[in-house]
Amino acid sequence: MAGSIAEIKKQATEKMAKSVDTLKHDLAKVRTGRAHAGLLDHLRVDYYGTEMPINQVANITLSDARTISVQPWEKKMVQIVEKAIRDSDLGVNPATSGDMIRVPMPALTEERRKELTKIVKHEGENAKVAVRNIRRDANTHLKALLKESEVSEDEEKRAQDEVQKMTDKSIADIDKLVGDKEKELMAV
C-alpha cells in the first residue's frame, strides 16, 4: 500500500507527466507537410552488426522547409541509410547524389491531413484515459489510507482535490498538444 499522501501525489504527478511526455513523443512522429530533422530519429540502420539510430551514423539537417539532408559520416553507409529511409513508414523517396541523401517531404493531401488529424485526436484521447486511470488509482490509495485511519477525512478530501487539479492540468496540456498538432497539420 502506498505510504503517505505525499507519496501518492508524487507518484501520480510523475505518472501524469510521463503520459503527457509520451503523447508529445508520439505526436512528433506524425508527419506534417513540413520537414523536421526529428522525423528520422526512430529509424535504425545496421552499423557493423549493431542496430544504430540514423542520427548516430549521419549528420541530419534541413536544407529547406520541405527537405531533410542526410550526410552519412562513412561512404559505405550511404546506401544502407538511404535504404532504411526508403523502407521506413514515412512514405518518402530519398535521392542520393554523391554522399548526400536528400529526403523531400511530399505535400499532404487533404484526405491524408484529415486522417492524421483523427490519429492525433485518438492519441490525445488515449493519453487522457491514461491520466484519468492514474487519478483513479491515486484516489483509491487515498481512500485506503482513510479507511485504515491513517489520515483524516479532511486530509483525504484535500489530497483528492489536489489530485483532481493535477489531472485537470495534465488534460489541459494534452488538449494544447493535440490542438497545436492539428493546426500544424491543417496549415498548408
Summarize the structure.
The chain is α+β, with helices and mostly antiparallel strands and 188 residues long. Helix content is 56%, strand content 15%.
Widest beta sheet: strand line-up: 3-4-6-5
Helix content: 55-70%
The overall strand count is 6
Detail the poorly predicted runs. none
CATH topology of the largest domain: Topoisomerase I, Chain A, domain 4
Mean pLDDT across residues: 87
Name of the CATH class of the largest domain: Mainly Alpha
CATH superfamily of the largest domain: Ribosome-recycling factor
**How big a fraction of the residues is strand?**
15-25%
Task: State the end-to-end distance.
Answer: 52 Å
Assembly context of the chains: single chain
Would you identify the CATH architecture of the largest domain?
A: Orthogonal Bundle
Run of helices and strands = HEEEEHEEHH
**Largest sheet properties:** 4 strands, antiparallel
Overview of the structural elements:
It contains four helices and six strands; from the N terminus they run αββββαββαα. It is of the alpha+beta class. It has two domains: 5-29 and 109-186, Orthogonal Bundle (Topoisomerase I, Chain A, domain 4), CATH 1.10.132.20; 37-104, Gyrase A, domain 2, CATH 3.30.1360.40. Strands 3-4-6-5 form a four-stranded antiparallel beta sheet, covered by helices on one side. Helix 1 runs antiparallel to helix 3, helix 1 (5-29) packs parallel to helix 4 (153-186) and helix 3 runs antiparallel to helix 4 (153-186). The longest helix has 38 residues, at 110-147. It starts with a helix and ends with a helix. The mean pLDDT is 87.
